[in-house]
Design a protein that fits this description.
Layout: H1 7-16, H2 21-28, H3 32-39, H4 47-57, H5 66-79, H6 89-98, H7 100-127, H8 141-151, H9 157-172, H10 176-188, E1 191-194, E2 203-206, E3 211-214, H11 220-235, H12 237-244, H13 253-272, H14 275-284, H15 289-296, H16 300-307, E4 311-312, E5 315-316, E6 321-325, E7 331-336, H17 353-356, E8 365-370, E9 376-387, E10 395-405, E11 427-428, E12 453-456, E13 461-464
Parallel strand pairs: 1-3, 8-11
Antiparallel strand pairs: 2-3, 4-5, 6-7, 6-10, 8-9, 9-10, 12-13
Helix pairs in contact: 2-3, 5-6, 5-7, 6-7, 8-13, 9-10, 9-13, 10-11, 11-13, 12-13, 15-16
């Protein structure tokens, strides 16, 4: 155990229990002078003293855990990313160690700010409809699941490590696909068949015959993903249910079902792209998405999705935001390992490079983008297309975006040629016109809701700003 100084935390525990230094010293079997030195950070906290404190004060040893401090430091770094004066890592560590309550309060205030932004967007949705009796918007099942993943920083340690263990077993055998097929057969009595031609879904499971049918259109990587998803549902059902036995999933069946599928898909991604091996390759190749896709035999979108989940305590990757949109601006997927101003109401900024990518299909488009609050990000976007074989069969095209805070950009190959110090060169973007306060944007389609209402003095009511008499505003 390295030297750990936790004087402030120790003084706080003593004060909460109404003990004097002499009384606590007697309870711990220490001299008052030695305890005083511990509380003044003149002596480090040893393992033997820590165990005595745990027994005497009835506190969990985890109360002094470095893991908890690391999480607090990471959370404070996120909360203070746009602070007017940079806060150094030693200062953050000192705060997390000596004043954890202050650190948690700071993080909580930051989260309240994020919640306020979310309510602002919900208000924008309501005000954007001309019906006065429009009820307050409620979360759809996919939104509830998305918020659940966000609350866990898009990382689930127990599931991720279990999937990594499966991957190690598969590597020791004949390979991933044969291992998955045999595991389903031997452990669960499930047979696997492949449908001929197109299939309505990628995977279907007949519980009566214990048969798993995969679409004939899937490549090997996609087959492995679907087999792993089914294995997760069968073998990790209890672990998954333990995670989702929380509101709103305890009373909302559609959201609960969607959350189970989402966590099973998470396991599948962690199996196909095992954490340690994948993170090592990502760091080695500076997060080059196409190289990673080639190395692991999966698609561009799959790599982007996995990169947004690399937040294992003690071994984190770059905290990414992942988004998938169509040409109409509909966001069909979004995941974040940290905070980003994703819009809940659609109509996201047309200046964002995820839309520019549609004009350059198949090409990676980098962008430095600055939000109205001053935060600057590095985004890379590229189109991905899916189509069924056969003449005249309709296809699907999306733009996939992957972004991170600018402070992480030097770790990415996509920062080549960019002047990361010149934040003024970043493209000004926003969450969407209704909630973006930029007044000089020529792409604005709607007024900012903070300016969208004005008082008509003659009628004593609120009217849309665009129709108000400027002389009376």
């Amino acid at each position: 155990m390295k030297k750990v100084f936790m004087g402030v935390k120790l003084r706080r525990l003593r004060a909460e229990r109404g003990l004097s230094q002499i009384a606590l010293a007697q309870a711990l079997g220490l001299s008052p002078s030695y305890l005083n030195q511990l509380e003044q950070n003149q002596r480090p906290l040893t393992v033997s003293v820590l165990l005595k404190i745990s027994r005497a004060l009835g506190v969990d040893v985890q109360h002094f855990s470095e893991d908890e401090e690391a999480r607090l430091v990471a959370a404070m770094q996120e909360a203070l990313a746009d602070a007017p004066e940079p806060v150094t890592l030693p200062e953050l560590k000192e705060t997390a160690t000596q004043m954890p309550a202050l650190a948690r309060a700071l993080v909580q205030l930051h989260r309240r700010h994020a919640d306020t932004l979310a309510r602002l967007e919900a208000m924008a949705l309501k005000l954007g409809d001309d019906r006065a009796d429009l009820p307050a918007p409620t979360l759809m099942p996919f939104e509830a699941v998305r918020d659940f993943f966000f609350s866990h920083q898009n990382y689930f340690d127990a599931l991720d490590r279990a999937a990594e263990g499966w991957a190690a077993q598969a590597r020791a055998g004949a390979g991933l696909l044969p291992w998955l097929t045999e595991r389903l057969r031997s452990a669960h009595g499930v047979g696997v068949r492949h449908s001929a031609g197109s299939h309505d879904g990628k995977r279907s499971f007949d519980t009566a015959t214990r048969t798993l049918t995969l679409s004939g259109e899937l490549d090997e990587g996609q087959q492995a993903f679907q087999l792993a998803t089914q294995l997760a549902l069968l073998e990790m059902g209890q672990a998954i249910d333990a995670l989702i036995n929380v509101p709103p999933f305890d009373t909302d069946a559609p959201s609960r079902h969607l959350a189970r599928i989402g966590l099973a898909n998470y396991v599948a991604g962690a199996l196909v792209l095992p954490y340690g091996e994948f993170l090592q390759a990502a760091e080695q190749w500076r997060y080059d998405i196409e190289l990673l896709a080639q190395r692991f035999g999966v698609g561009y979108e799959t790599v982007c999705h996995r990169l947004s989940t690399l937040q294992r305590p003690g071994a984190p990757g770059v905290p990414f935001f992942f988004v998938r949109v169509d040409r109409a601006g509909n966001i069909s997927k979004r995941q974040s390992a940290t905070h980003f101003h994703f819009s809940r109401v659609g109509g996201t900024c047309p200046l964002w490079n995820v839309y520019e990518a549609f004009s350059q299909p198949g090409r990676i488009v980098p962008q430095m983008a600055r939000m109205p609050d001053g935060r600057t990000y590095l985004w890379v976007a590229r189109t991905v297309s899916q189509r069924r074989p056969g003449y005249g069969a309709p296809g699907k095209t999306f733009s996939v975006g992957l972004g991170c805070d600018l402070r992480h950009a030097p770790r990415l190959v996509y920062s080549k040629g960019l002047d990361l110090r010149d934040t003024e060169a970043a493209t000004p973007i926003g969450m969407g016109c209704k909630v973006c306060e930029r007044t000089d944007c020529r792409q604005r389609a709607f007024p900012f809701i903070g300016r969208a209402l004005a008082v008509d003095e003659n009628q004593s009511r609120f009217v849309p700003y665009a129709f108000a008499d400027p002389a009376k505003v």
